[in-house]
Fold:
Amino acid sequence: MLADLRQALGLFHVIVYMAVGDLRSRYRRSVLGPLWITLGTAAGTVGLGLVWSELLKMDRAVFVPSLTAGLIMWQLLSGCITEATTTYWRQSALLRNVSGVPLSMPPIQMVLKHLINFLHNVPVFIVVALYFHVRVTPATALVLPCMMLLALNLFWITLLLSMLGARFRDLEYVIGAAMPVLMFLSPVFYRPDYLPFNQAFVWANPFSHFIELVRYPLLGAAPPDFVVLVNILMCVAGGAFTLLLFNAKHDRIAYWL
Amino acid sequence: MARLAFHDVTVQYPVYDVRAKSLRSQLVRMSTGGRIEQESSGVQIVTAVRNASFSFADGDCVGLTGHNGAGKSTLLRAMAGVYRPAHGNVAREGRVSTMFELGAGMDSELTGYENVVRMSLLLGLTQAQIRTRMADIESFTQLGTFLRLPVRTYSAGMTTRLMFAVATSTAPDILLVDEIFSAGDAEFQARAAERMHALIASVRIFVFASHDMLTLKRYCNRFLRLEHGVVSEVSASDL
Structure:
């Protein structure tokens, strides 16, 4: 199982090529190409920022940067999780017919594709941050390690959902139905401390921890210790569970496709 | 030196019906158990290969025969390491290349060139190896400037040329082939046969599943017959 992972990491250049190719092919017939992702996010930020800042009676200079950070984080999370359930059977032609393809490769490719997507959204945040004079502090540099921790979490979630999605075909629809609801239950448009009632409710949602982990440093503050801790715990516990399951079911996955 | 050895290998695969593929029925099953479990499990185990033992070494060109559904493709996938055996032991030494269903990793929105690189990378070649083989692929496919267009604009025959050219541009020690496909015009078929011939001559172990006795006898020097998952070695005259 670890051998499988090691083999996949050895093929990292192949994975990068595939992930970039996936993106290129998706936007091949459009004028702006992957810039459509950027444009979509920019439009969403402007529209939602104008309306929701009025609705929530918030100062735009505070609300819009936090909203933008929330939106680009949500796109990353929901993109990975929604697509994860179909990872293996989208690649079934490859996994069934080519010898020596490590089974951890398609999930890594999926996460990487969405991280590249995310990079297309970063300029929107930078423009918003410059416009509203978001503070740049030493804590801003924490974005990188926090993103890395999040990427590790996304990897085990994607691998887990890939396996479950290969075995149970209706998981795709379960996730598809759950994600829009989760978007409103997660602090995408708001911050957990905006809530007039008990914040513990929001922090029971793992997505809150994923989003806030990166949103804090994006806005120039270090994330609270408990957010970092919960992320590390999820990474260790979820990662261990997923690897155990992967180890147990590794030999069966090809038969499920 | 290449080697491919099966020791008492049994390959079983589960066949799931709609119920077993559904998460909902699995949850219902877990929460109710007992009587409903009988009705809703819906998993059948098919034994595709039973207690197979054989060993191939350098110079072996092996033909696999058997009826439809005898387990030829499953046995080939077990040789490739795609399917892991339920029990028994598969030993493989040497680089394995497969030609089962062609075109793994192909994306029809990308150009011919991009697809050549994609498919070749997945087959285990490096960028440098791909660059040196590109000229050969260009001349074999005879697609010319079409290689710069997206694959979705190709005809079925053109796509086959591209997939075939990539699949045959690897230099493996062990080559596993499931049926030789006949696509494209007569002229292309002749060139494809020639290219296949050269590839077979260059590998150490060649395993080929087919119904076509003439082709089998032409390329192979050992023959395995599969009947209901049981593998037996036969001589050329018994085919």
Residues 186-202 of chain B form the longest helix (17 residues). The longest strand of chain B covers residues 43-57. Chain B touches chain A at residues 13-14, 16, 21-24, 26, 77, 80-84, 96-98, 100-105, 107, 109-110, 114, 117-118, 121-124, 127, 150, 176 (CB under 8 Å). Confidence is low (pLDDT under 50) at residues 36-40 of chain B.
